[in-house]
Structures are given as structure tokens and as C-alpha cells.
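Batch manifest line 411
LIGAND: zinc ion
JOB: complex structure
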Amino acid sequence: MAHVEGLRCRECGHLYETAAIYTCEWCFGPLEVVYDYDAIRAAVTREKIAKGPDTIWRYSDLLPVEGDTAVDLGAGYTPLVRADRLAEALGLGEVWVKNDTLNPTNSFKDRVVAVALSKALELGFKTAACASTGNLANSVAAHAARAGLKSYVFVPSDLEAGKIVTTSVYGGNVVAVDGNYDDVNRLCAELAGMYPWAFVNVNMRPFYAEGSKTLAFETAEQLGWQAPDHVVVPMASGSLLTKIDKGFRELYKVGLLDEEPNVRVSGAQAEGCSPIAKAFIDESDTIKPVKPSTIAKSLAIGNPADGYFALDVVRRTGGGMSAVSDDEVVAGIQTLARTEGIFAETAGGVTIATLAKLARDGVVKPDERVVVYITGHGLKTLDAVQDVARPTATIPPTLDAFQAAFTIEEN
Ligand SMILES: [Zn+2]
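JOB STATUS: finished
ARTIFACT:
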């Protein structure tokens, strides 16, 4: 049971009734879900959550879906892994990896899509749609199939081939657009005004974005209902980072955390698309849109919708931001795989490389309990590592050839 009062403009505070709308008609500011926190506080307990499903729906009291339309492919409640070998490699103390590669379509997008399509069913939509850099396309296509909705997903035509296959297989419509993500997004904003479709990241965006809070909810629950000291989050639109911050604060507001959390939030971007990190590093209040050029395509949003909100969160919490090169991204993927056995997509490489940089710069400290968010699986971006992840040796099928290639020490 949700406890939604309506929607509110994040800029001017104007209130709206719950509907598939996303911008304020007074000031064009983005809309956000408004909850009755007293009602939530009265309804939730740690015990009730523990008895819920091992998915994001264990937190349904804190999500904006009313009624029984939850679309459940098993999104969420992914492992939070203590990463001592990674911590040692980076000169840090206590590091945890939130492994969201293990979602149903192998990225954190399953969290936001599950919430958006559940709300779409509740509001009576028959067709789901999205603009995507790839992971969202996978997730919308899969969840639409599960929910019995038609789907149209729009992606840049230069997307990794694997992400096209892992979307098309679900049988919806996949539209490859000759342009970058920002072009695709503009087209979808126009289409959303013409067709009665639930565009998860356009007219459903206020509900969709709330799904990201579950990453904070799970982190706190998995740490024994404690907030970490510092989190490192990849940034595309910047929405994920702001919602993780919001999630921790909500847990305190509804009585699920005993102490007011004081989580430092840091953001990660790739140099080839780092408008938010650049504004932070330059101490500027202006985010200048860029034309993306990076192997981290799932983060390649040149004009980030929530960039200013992300800047505010990082400045308010005393976190940091950094941008890393494509070579550092590949090294980040390798570091995580070789220390912890977790294979991340390029966005994860961005996040690990940024964590390494922030640790070197003293922003992330050895005495902090750090959580790093790994948001997508490495099988999605094999191209990025194919040149560095090769056979150790290629030999004829003979003992001599093996022994010529390797010197095996006695155990
Ligand atoms: Zn407004």
C-alpha cells in the first residue's frame, strides 16, 4: 500500500494530482512524488520489510504504486558484497560493492522500470515506451513482456550490438534512431505528447525515478539498518545519485534508521561525457551540455536532466566528483573483476576508476565505510574489454607446448 498525496514541482512547489505528467505548467520545473510520511511511518517496520519478497517490492510502502499492479520480474535485493581485496588495492579500509549486475536484465534499470510499469498499469496504459542508452531498453522490453504491455523502445543506432539483441528478443518494437541519446530523448518528448503511451523516463519519470531509492533502502537494510559513511554513484542524468541520497534520508524520516544519516555522496563520470563533474571541479553553477564521446555509453547523456540536483547533493553532503578516461574505465573493470570476481559494464569501470581517483585525492578516506554502486553487467559491453581480456596463451594440444608456455611452480 502506497501513501502518495500527489506530485509537486521541484522548482516552485506547485501541487498536482497523481497522473502521467512530468513538468510544471507554471514554471516547467520537474515534478516529484509527494508522500504522506506520517502514514508511512505508521505502516512500516523493519520486521514487515523482512517478511516481504526478496525484491524491491519489500519496500512497497515507500514506493509510489497503489493497488496490486506490481510488475515483478525479481528486480532488486541484489547482493551487497564486502570487498576487502578491492579495498586493499585502492588503499581503503571498509568497501562494499552493491552488485546490481544481478538484476533480471542485469542492470539497476530493472528497479525504475518495475516501478514505472506498475504505475502505468495502475493508470490504465496499454503501451510502454522509453528513450534509452541501452540498459533501459533491455529492461522496458522485458518488463513489458512480463506485464502484457506493448512496447516501443528508442535507442541511438550506434548502440552496442549486444544491447540491441537483448532488447529485441522480448518481441517489442525496437527503433534505432540515427542520432545520440539527446536526439533520441528529444524525439521521445515529442512522441509522448502525441501518443497515449507510458514513456517511462518522460511522462512516467516522477514515478520511475523513485525506483532508484531502493538502492539506498537495501544498502541500509543489508548493513543491519545502518547508513554507510560514503557512497560512490555513477552519473548519467544524475537522477540515480539524487535518489540514493533521498532514500537514506527517507529511512530516517519514517523511523527505519535510528540515527540521522550523514552519508557523503560522490559522483562518477567518464571524461568523454562529464558535464556534471566538470561543473563540480570548476566550482561552477553552470552545467554546459556536451556531445558525448566515451565507451561508457550507458552514462552518455550530454544534457543531464538532474545535473543541478546532483551537484547540490554532492556539495551539501561534502562528497566529490571526478571524471576518468576510457583507459581508466577499462582498468576499473579489470580491477573489480580481478579483486572481487564481479564483471561490470563500462559504467562500473567508470565508478571503480572514480573511486580509485577519489581515494588517491583523499576525498574517500580509509576510515570510512564506503559503498560503491555497480549498476550493469560486463556482458553488456564486451567490446570495451575484448582487446585486454585475451587467452593467456594459445598452444597446440601437447604437453610440451603447455610446458614451454608456462612455468608451473610446485604447490
Ligand atoms: Zn513549477
